[in-house]
Design brief:
Helices cover 21% and strands 18% of the residues. The chain is an alpha/beta fold and 587 residues long. Bound molecules: beta-D-glucopyranose.
Length: 587
């Protein structure tokens, strides 16, 4: 796991709020001699006083483009692109060129490419008047061209992707509703071995498939269990469980912004990810023996949000995140997983969508929704996505009753406090509901549901505030009133003072399919000193209690518990603390 605030400069741009403007189709028709050409562009800008996030979707209405696509436009004012995603966006003078990434360079007839960028500007942010795709001005329809036998009606978008899987059977709207969840016996045994652990060990927790060997199961249970995917599914049948949760967590170049959960696959191992990891999992899940189970797959924690906030040019950006953005390993890997694992009538994909203390700022919110959409499109269909999960393995409070974005202290907004730091959100429930709306508006199905990992965001115990502070200074007020007791919202490793949160439950709030325990309480986030291991896991100083921080946590102490084992390994002291500080409290 890792996480991370956006750089300060990007945070500040949220101050002025946002205004949207939508525009622009070109007006001049152009044709090519031998092929039908045409395109349609939708362009929107989410602007604040000195910058904006642009969101562009281009649809090819002409013959298929196979040798790479290139969208060009001119800005009318002094707009200057600072960063692009899902395309290479370069600018020369007022002229901007966006080219498709090497792994998504084709555009079939009727297919769309979506990408985004951040830019600076001053004055008026006028939208471009005209766009051209590979030299053809986009008029919203195909030019006359020469219809070919294989493409007789170029102006009529055909099926966008012939590899789209068949309809996925009769999935239920909410797979968590009305049924008992699978209790992982390996986690249960560890919890039951702790004094008082039997008070919580009956809760369903997720099974993490964090390496290829976890599929078959292994005798080496140094940090994880030895049951394989079939063992868990068989046991779920024996238990009479209605649903079972797996975490799909083995991307090439995993955990690119941190070290504690680096994995076994190198940055260029996408082929191995597909053939040695996803394919075997999909094959087992497809066994008709398991057709009565609702199989929930939680897809690739932290990966796509890392491409939005932790690449070069950003505070805390890493070379590995640059690599994974440039080589398409994350987008294509997630796309492949969604396609293969979403194809069955009884499987449900929920994609990881970070948490409010990571993508709650305007500058990260829409770009993250867009890259999630891009991965879904890479899978062939947004129908492969049933929903999203937030706060996985993190500690953000579910609700902050005394610190809402609208709260003011002595006329000063809490958004100006160091803790909130201009974020648009202060808690996970509000964030999850708002992000659901954003995801639907970029193109996901209106029926998607959200999950919130409440395994460790309880923050009970004697330090929990029982009402708002009476302080008149905004920082003092927020620090005394907030439920989340971390030193900084960017801290993520084995947090001191945390407690178990809401117990797993279905339909807890509007738009929320379930509160879930995806991170099994008691399993470490990372070692507090270097511990050699054969799982690829590094030592991240965010897990060292003596560390004084980095750009991603505002150079604050890490707030981590001491003496922690490597990520995934049992950490008894943490489990005891989580029970002691549970909220709601344990009876
Ligand atoms: C680790 C995994 C582990 C998971 C659940 C992650 O941080 O990298 O190995 O399975 O946590 O504890």
């Amino acid at each position: 796991m890792s996480l991370r605030l956006p750089p300060a400069a990007r945070r500040l741009v949220t101050v002025a709020g946002a205004a949207a403007l939508v525009t622009g189709l070109g007006v001049v028709a152009a044709t090519q001699a031998s092929a039908a050409a045409g395109c349609r562009v939708s362009y929107s800008a989410n602007s604040w006083s000195t910058g904006f996030t642009g969101n562009v979707s281009v649809t090819n209405l002409g013959d298929p483009i196979t040798g790479g696509w290139r969208l060009e436009w001119d800005f009318a004012g002094n707009q200057r692109v600072t960063q692009g995603w899902s395309a290479t966006v370069t600018q020369s003078g007022t002229h901007v060129t966006a080219t498709g990434p090497s792994w998504a360079s084709s555009l079939a007839t009727g297919a769309s490419a979506t990408f985004g960028f951040n830019a600076d500007y001053s004055g008026t942010n006028t939208a471009p008047a005209s766009f051209s795709l590979n030299g053809t001005v986009c008029t919203g329809s195909a030019g006359p061209g020469t219809p070919s036998p294989s493409n007789p009606t170029p102006s009529n978008p055909g099926p966008s992707n012939p590899t789209t899987p068949p309809p996925a059977g009769s999935k239920v709207d909410n797979p968590y509703a009305g049924v008992q969840g699978y209790r992982n016996p390996e986690w249960q045994a560890k919890a039951n071995a702790e004094p008082g652990g039997s008070r919580v060990s009956n809760n369903p927790t997720a099974v993490w498939l964090d390496r290829i060997a976890a599929i078959e199961g292994t005798e080496d249970s140094s940090s994880n269990g030895s049951m394989g995917v079939r063992d868990h599914l068989d046991r779920a049948l024996t238990q009479g469980a209605g649903y079972i949760q797996f975490v799909i967590y083995n991307l090439p170049g995993r955990d690119c912004a941190a070290l504690a959960s680096n994995g076994e696959l190198g940055p260029n191992d996408l082929p191995r990810y597909k053939s040695e990891y996803i394919d075997p999992i999909a094959a087992i899940q497809a066994d008709p023996k398991y057709a009565s189970l609702r199989i929930i797959n939680i897809i690739e924690i932290d990966s796509l949000p890392n491409l939005v906030t932790n690449t070069s040019g950003q505070a805390g950006g890493t070379a590995m995140c640059d690599t994974m953005k440039a080589n398409g390993g994350y987008v294509q890997g997630v796309g492949y997983a969604l396609n293969k694992l979403g194809a069955l009538g009884n499987t449900y994909n929920y994609v990881d969508a970070a948490h409010h203390g990571w993508i709650g700022w305007d500058s990260n919110f829409l770009p993250t929704a867009n890259i999630l959409l891009q991965a879904a499109q890479a899978s062939g269909s947004v129908n492969n996505v049933h929903g999203f999960i937030v706060n996985t393995a993190n500690y953000s409070a579910l609700r902050e009753p005394y610190v809402q974005p609208t709260t003011t202290v002595n006329g000063v907004s809490v958004r100006q406090s160091k803790w909130v730091d201009w974020n648009q959100y202060t808690d996970e429930l509000t964030f999850a509901q708002a992000f659901r709306n954003q995801l639907v508006s970029v193109g996901f199905n209106s029926g998607i549901g959200m999950l919130i990992d409440t395994s460790r965001n309880g923050w009970g115990g004697s330090a929990r505030p029982t009402g708002p502070s009476t302080a008149t200074d905004v920082d003092t007020f927020v620090n005394q009133s907030r439920i989340d007791r971390r030193i900084h919202a960017g801290n993520w490793c084995n947090q001191s003072g945390a407690g178990l949160g809401e117990r797993p439950q279905a339909n807890p709030a509007s738009g929320i399919d379930a509160y879930v325990w995806v991170k099994p309480p008691g399993e470490s986030d990372g070692s507090s000193t270097l511990i050699p291991n054969d799982e690829g896991k590094g030592f991240d100083r965010m897990c060292d209690p003596t560390y004084t921080g980095n750009a991603r946590n505002g150079n604050n102490p890490s707030g981590a518990l001491p003496n922690a084992p490597i990520s995934g390994a049992w950490f008894s002291a943490q489990f005891q603390q989580l029970m002691a500080n549970a909220y709601p409290p344990l009876s």
